[in-house]
Specification:
Pfam family, one: LysM
Number of domains: 4
Distance between the termini: 18 Å
Shape: flat
Number of helices: 6
Protein name: LysM domain-containing protein
Largest sheet: 7 strands, antiparallel
Oligomer: single chain
Number of strands: 24
């Protein structure tokens, strides 16, 4: 079992995504959110900077990691800067300094003033221009696709039944025939392909199927079958692909990072980018979802351990002469050996009898203790599973690693 890890009290944080239109950006800590009692005093990292200049490309998580071992507790040490238009905004060029109030560390913008490089362009402070908590490029392809659906949803969805001229596949600009779509011409649809089945790591219970994004199509004529034209593709469409009404991609407006409790313990059951060894900024699937009260912004610790290892120190006793023992010594014959079976028809100079005992020194195995190997933050959640981004990894992570409350 994982060692008991007490959950931290959530401290409201709101973080928004960066604009894709320019490099000028800001980190947003939304004002007006109350600070609740902490689960314990916050201690800065021993190697924290006394002064840090915010750079373009920073995220709030990366800045917080310079000061705290638990970056989601940034609100505990951030001090708003009165006298400026947006006291919770952090911009590139700002100099962050550490002060102490009542013995507790605080981080704020030096002097409450901002260092601004003059450039021949307008500086925007819109929310959409703010630096996000995490690198958006790492999760962008997974924000609205793929989806997770159960067997009934897949069976009930309209599906590609064929193409003109009896071709085997279709691409951009091609026509596809789809069973049972009755909607207004011009409506947009997404083409999805059922893929791997997600299973609960411990029970093997089905949790849903990954439905990978294949492309988009526009309805030309409704009916059974309906006629659609493919407008966008990531791979060619085939009979059996499912369709669903297209949804507008949702911008990342807010994350509320908070540690999960031990009640949300689960496992990494898949990785979405096809790697075998999981590292920082890889996207993983966790066998817990909204049915288990897992929400966007939940922070998990990823743990390694629990496997059985051989005690190699005791195993050396299999080598009868490691202590310079001799067959003439009583311990050699009456020591801690154990009978493992009988050998038959193994005639040799050392085994003159066709049947003799096989024995070896006793060795002990041990179970590796669980230890924190990384952290993951949920950015998309379904009823039975969630997608999470690996925020940090002290070692290579693997499918099957347990997840639970992160260490404080």
């Amino acid at each position: 079992m994982l060692r008991e890890i007490r959950p931290l009290v959530h401290r409201g944080l709101t973080w928004v995504r960066p604009s894709m239109l320019g490099a000028t950006a800001a980190v947003l800590l939304v004002a007006g959110l109350s600070i609740t009692a902490t689960a314990g005093a916050v201690e800065l990292r021993p190697d924290h900077p006394e002064r840090y200049t915010v750079k373009v490309g920073d995220t709030l998580w990366s800045i917080a990691s310079r000061y705290l071992d638990a970056p989601w507790r940034w609100r505990d040490i951030w001090q708003e800067n009165p006298g400026v238009a947006n006291p919770n905004l952090i911009y590139p060029g700002d100099v962050l300094t550490v002060t102490y109030h009542g013995g507790q560390p605080r981080v704020r913008v030096e002097g409450g003033m901002r260092v601004v490089r003059l450039e021949p362009r307008v500086r925007s402070e819109q929310l959409d221009a703010a630096i996000p908590t995490i690198p958006v490029s790492a999760i962008g392809p997974f924000l609205s696709r793929p989806v997770v659906a159960n067997e009934k949803q897949i069976d009930a969805a309209p599906y590609v039944v064929g193409f003109p001229d009896d071709r085997a596949v279709a691409g951009v600009g091609d026509t596809i025939f789809v069973r049972s779509i009755f909607a207004e011409p011009g409506t947009r649809w997404e083409i999805l392909r059922p893929g791997k089945e997600f299973l609960d790591y411990e029970t093997g219970e089905p949790l849903g199927f990954e439905a990978a994004y294949v492309g988009s199509a526009e309805l030309v004529q409704s009916g059974d079958p309906a006629t659609l034209t493919i407008t966008r593709m990531t791979q060619q469409s085939m009979p059996g692909d499912r369709l669903r009404p297209a949804e507008d991609e949702k911008a990342i407006r807010a994350f509320l990072p908070r540690p999960v409790t031990d009640a949300s313990s689960g496992h990494v059951i898949a990785v979405l980018n096809g790697v075998s060894q999981i590292g920082q900024y890889d996207v993983v699937v966790i066998d817990r979802g909204t049915d288990n009260d897992v929400q966007v912004g939940d922070v998990f610790g990823v743990y390694r351990g629990g496997d059985v290892k051989q005690d190699k120190v005791k195993a050396r006793k299999d080598e009868w002469n490691w202590r310079n023992e001799s067959p003439l010594d009583a311990d050699f014959w009456y020591g801690d050996w154990e009978v493992t079976g009988w050998r038959r028809n193994q005639l040799s100079d050392n085994a003159p009898l066709p049947l003799h005992v096989e024995a070896r020194k006793k060795t002990d195995d041990y179970v590796v203790p669980f230890w924190p190997a990384g952290t993951a933050m949920v950015f998309r959640s379904f009823p039975r599973v969630s997608f999470a981004l690996i925020m940090s990894a002290r070692a290579a992570l693997h499918v099957g690693n347990p997840v639970s409350a992160p260490p404080q």
